[in-house]
Amino acid sequence: MSYLKFDKNLMINLEQSLPKEMLRTNQAGAYHCTSIVGCNTRKQHGLLVIPRDGIKEYKPVVLLSSLDETVIQHGAPFNLGIHRYQGGVLSPNGHKYIREFDCESVPRTTYRVGGVILTKEKIFISGENRILIRYTLVEAHSPTTLQFRPFLAFRDANELCVANGALNQNCEPVDNGVACCLYPGYPTLYMQLSRKPEWVFDPHWYNGIEYVKDMDRGVPYTEDLWVPGYFQIPIKKGESIIFSAGVSEVKPRNLTKMYEAEIASRTCRTSFFNCLKNAAKQFYLFKDDREFMLSGYPWGTILARNTFMSLPGNTLAINHREDFERIMDSGSKALTRYMDTGECSQTIHGIDLPDIPLWCIWAIQQYAKTEGWDLARERYTELVTHILDWIIDGGHPNLFLGDDGLLSTDGHEKAVSWMNSQLGGKPIVPRSGKLIEFNALWYNALRFAEKLTEDNPGLVERRNRWMDLADKMKQPFIDTFLNDYGYLYDTVDNAYADPSVRPNMAIAIGLDYSPLDRRQRKGVLDVVTRELLTPKGLRTLSPKSYGYRPSYLGSPEERETALHQGPARPWLIGFYADAYLKVFGMSGVSYIDRMLIGFEDEMSQGCIGSLSQLYDGNPPFSGRGAISHATNVAEVLRTLRTLKRLDV
């Protein structure tokens, strides 16, 4: 039995099937994303969405929005496609022919039209902007013909298309297909089949297509798509036909071999771990001979903080050490350039934020624990040393080392931490002064560097400097953040200590090195468990704190306001689990294992096989935001690896 299989009853019930989405990527920035019934519900959905060449930052464009299939028998057409038009009208209603959807190795939809049974399987070619769809006629009692009608967009993934007369209607013939490019500046789209079809030029605009997810988010949601014509091809019982859509021409005779080779390299989604492993690899982005980490889909980009935070879980936890090293090389080069010259990367955004070097050292620390201290010393001692000296010497323009050894930052006018929601250019949660996770990461970094360089005679003086600084800040840390109620203040800005109960204290007690002793950690852990813990991670604000807003709903402004005021974040479970195991030891393993059940339930919800960006802070803890988020997948994977290591 497949781990991710949905039967007819669910598929034909659009209230249940439309909210479920599927995502496939090529690890080079291209992706395919839609609902499991094939009806696009977001403007970012598409059958072939690729990064636009010539732009340094990641900006995907939708070329092929969808492909409608029609089964023809005895002259009668049965359209398997589905679109939502203005007024909520669904046409055609191809979902009623679906008998099963299976996503174990590749997305596979089984249709039944009378005596016809047809399967459709989709797969991306790794590292190439090409999607293949294999159609197999499993059963048929009379001659059968297939029609394929492509819906073209040729637009930015975050924009919408409007019917116009400026597009290029030409469809140039290529081997077993056609090639077209609607507008200047876009790549040519090659649509080909493994066997020669008939191409019928029948151009039309399909107007008023609606995207219900965008409608719910209060953003523009209606567009027009161009259909230049359709392919028509007979198919026999037991025969397979492969449709290819890509930005370069392919030899049709190679499509079957190409498809089978790609299938053989896939990890089947037959378990919770395998689902997350596949999701983790989807965030990899190979670009210009370098490797990066995307923050999420469908509107993610390359962010410095998300890169370092998600790097250990999305690589080391699935035994992809080389990917860690390549992505770290890209990130560390951008960080080093900023430290040395003040120049920000055009590819990795936010490299200048004050907590980036601290998260970079944390990622290296996970590498040392997983791959061995000797290898970490060889690869990363110079980088860690550079970062610490740069911070201590006042190199960062918005990170200040005080006489008490604590770090402070100015976050009044610009968001400086991961809680970065803003309106009108101003942070909604203005975290400024001494931030709890900044200083926890700082203490942890100093102690980690102490161990990393313990056998390095050339760094004795620097090591002593770090040790002295860590010793110096230990008591001020406790005096500054630990309050009489047993939890940690989130920020302390001069005389003002923010009493809001927030999850950043979980980071402070989950790190390997903490100024807090075991008793103090347990006290903080009790508060986190009581007020912040949900089945989907830790709330961003306690329900008992002022301003709690558990649901990420409403207009863009309402959602932005709620973003860090209550919704839960799965990635924080990694630090919570670390803290729990540090306090309770092996007796806490079964508890953390049970906590992960809430995430396993999500494998068949939202974006199947992955985790959403955030979840409502109150039951039923519905998934919201980006459908697949790198930090969430990473930290749940890292927690799974920790449990597996302890179980051994």
Q: How far is the first residue's CA from the last residue's CA?
A: 28 Å
What is the β-strand count? 35
What is the residue-mean pLDDT, rounded to a whole number?
96
Q: Classify the beta-strand content into a percent band.
A: 25-35%
The residue fraction in helices comes out at 25-40%
**Order of the strands making up the biggest sheet:** 1-9-10-11-12-19-16-15-14
Form type = elongated
Query: How big is the Rg?
Result: 26 Å
Tell me what you see in this structure:
With 648 residues, this protein is an alpha+beta fold. The chain has 18 helices and 35 strands. The protein has a 9-stranded antiparallel sheet. The longest helix is centred in the last third of the chain and has 22 residues, at 460-481. The model has no long low-confidence stretch (mean pLDDT 96).
List the helices and strands and how they pair.
Elements: E1 5-7, H1 8-11, H2 14-17, E2 21-25, E3 31-35, E4 46-51, E5 60-73, E6 76-79, E7 82-85, E8 89-93, E9 98-102, E10 108-113, E11 116-124, E12 130-139, E13 144-156, E14 172-174, E15 177-180, E16 189-193, E17 198-210, H3 212-216, E18 222-235, E19 240-246, H4 255-264, H5 272-281, E20 284-287, E21 290-293, E22 296-297, H6 304-315, H7 321-341, H8 356-371, H9 373-392, E23 400-401, E24 407-408, E25 422-423, E26 426-427, E27 434-435, H10 436-452, H11 460-481, E28 491-493, E29 496-497, H12 504-510, H13 518-531, E30 533-534, E31 537-539, H14 556-562, E32 568-569, H15 573-584, H16 589-595, H17 597-600, E33 614-615, E34 623-624, E35 628-629, H18 630-647
Antiparallel strand pairs: 1-9, 2-3, 3-4, 4-5, 5-6, 5-13, 7-8, 9-10, 10-11, 11-12, 12-19, 13-18, 14-15, 15-16, 16-19, 17-18, 20-21, 22-35, 23-24, 25-26, 27-28, 28-29, 30-31, 31-32, 33-34
Helix pairs in contact: 5-18, 6-7, 6-8, 6-18, 7-8, 8-9, 8-10, 9-10, 10-11, 10-12, 12-15, 13-15, 15-18
